[in-house]
Amino acid sequence: MTAAAAAPGDTARETPRRGAPVFAGDVTVRTIAEASGVTTMTFDTPPAFRHISPGQFAMVSSNRDGAPLLARPMSLIATDPLEISFGYQGEGTRLIAAAEPGEKLHIMGPLGLPFAPLGSDALIVVEGAHFGTMLSLARMRHAAGEATHVLFVTRPPAQPAGPVTAGEQDAALMAMFEPYATVTAVPGDALAGALAAAGRPSAVAAGAFDHGMKIVQDWCDAEKIPGHAALQVAMPCGIGACKSCIKTFKDGRYHLVCEGPIFPIAEVAF
Amino acid sequence: MSATVPDLAVPIGAVTLKNPIIPASGTFAASYGRVFDLGRLGGLVPKTLMPGYRPGHPPNRLTEAGGGLLNAVGIPSDGEEAFLRDTLPAYKGWGTPLIVSVSADTAAGFAELVALLEDEGVDAVELNLSCPNLEEGGKSFALDTKMTAEAVAACRSSKLPLWAKLSPNAEDIAAIAAAAVDAGADALIVANTLTGMAMRRDGRPALANVTGGLSGAPVKPVNLRCTYQVAQKLPGTPIIGCGGISTLQDVLDYMAAGASAVAVGSATFTRPLTMVNLVDEIASHCTSRGIAARDLTLRA
């Protein structure tokens, strides 16, 4: 399995254009593995997915009878084969996770714009519900020989996380990052202190709950460090037609998250 | 007509659609051009344009409910200048008619938007009459014969074909339709979403706006009935059926009820290729029967 994309600056890297072709259709599941409520799935890879970058996503849905009408946005973890990884939260993700090898799921993608280059020494701030995008980023950076430190913001251990506790799932997720980055577990109320002790990274990529994002935003602003927010909201269509996946920005306007979902953290109102 | 290449074109008054499948306003974006060739559709319909900048409703704007979709997006709009500069060009050049949907909260507002589009290369204008009329206490234009007539009449000086989009919430939609046609509407879109509501498990409304418009399969029997009633009342007026269309049979049902074409909305969110698949299926259906798409429309 290869990482999602080549390194920033690598001539092989293709920065997806807003107008790049998007695949829509059924794709066959190759492998599926589940542990601690986290499902990792690989697919036969349509050509449109051969050049993807961290931050990009696909809309995935089950073809089974009774499946929800709307697809679910899934971060693209890797290509060749195409890989997604997610914790299931409701009926849509539960049915996707229930797929078996050889079953066809409906996929539309790749969608979204990826991270800008983060430099040689990046910090990732992530919590359980946002891990897919950041895992893709950590893997890509590792493949490019770039250093990454991950502050993994843990949830209250007894909190439910799909079929397991958040404590069990967070431990499993941190283990998924460890081959690609140094990882530090941080309780949510200790995030500000952890950032203060994090040194001075070349850039920050953050995907977490709004309060955590505000802490990261304030720190990036104070330290004059480039920050990038990976936003995550309910996304019905994924392509800007339904105008429903909105987030308020500091300009006072709603912006469509699907037109990111990576945005300069300074621009978002948390 | 060739036996292998069916004639899919359908006339809607002065406008000839390439085939009977067009997007429902509010459910489409030019970005679908990344997924399929937009020129394969019978026509294109951008999201409804309203005067000035409008943020739309706060989130949550859309949810699954009752086997369909419930939305209260609030017609967000960047205003006329941005529409003409950024949105309209993305819909041009696809080789298929362009129908621009407009709405406003006064009859004069409708007229101003239609006038703005007069020389912009638009093939027809959809008057989305579901907007509240601020001059009549916020009641939707589409629920009242007089208000519907006033909105259409205010726009009638335009050379552009006017398609009035009606509401299934109207008590007597055939009467509303007649008022629209008497005031100058060239065609009717039957119909918009049905007002509904959904609750979350914690007992709070699922939508920030509390109520919203129900679309998808659950509204098909209602809007099909509306189509039939309007077709019976106005046998000479072209109708575009809309509501819960995702299969060939849905298309055939609406055309059997009197529609000349159909608008597809929610199904595109579920399967983005629904519309182009329907075009292919209509072509096969017509080929196998040696008929043209326009022959599918049944009128009393």
Structure description:
- The complex is a heterodimer of chains A (270) and B (300).
- In chain A, the strands form four sheets. Chain A has a six-stranded antiparallel barrel. A six-stranded mixed sheet of chain A has the order 12-9-8-13-14-17, with helices on both faces.
- Chain A folds into two domains: 2-111, Elongation Factor Tu (Ef-tu), domain 3; 121-267, 3-Layer(aba) Sandwich (Rossmann fold), CATH 3.40.50.
- By secondary structure, chain A is an alpha+beta fold.
- Chain A is built from five helices and 17 strands.
- In chain A, a hairpin with a 2-residue loop joins strand 5 (72-79) and strand 6 (82-87).
- The longest helix of chain A has 14 residues, at 210-223.
- The radius of gyration of chain A is 17 Å and the shape is globular.
- With 300 residues, chain B is of the alpha/beta class.
- Chain B has a single domain (10-60, 74-195, 217-296), classed as TIM Barrel, CATH 3.20.20.
- Chain B has helices spanning 80-91, 107-117, 145-155, 173-182, 220-233, 248-256, 266-270, 274-289, and strands at residues 10-12, 15-17, 21-23, 53-54, 62-65, 68-71, 77-78, 99-102, 124-128, 132-133, 139-140, 162-165, 187-190, 194-197, 211-215, 239-242, 261-264.
- In chain B, the strands form five sheets. Chain B has a seven-stranded parallel sheet. A four-stranded antiparallel sheet of chain B has the order 5-6-15-14, with no helix packed on it.
- In chain B, helix 5 (220-233) packs parallel to helix 6.
- Chain B starts with 9 loop residues before the first strand and ends in an 11-residue tail after the last helix.
- The mean pLDDT of chain B is 96.
- The interface between A and B is medium-sized, with 28 and 32 residues.
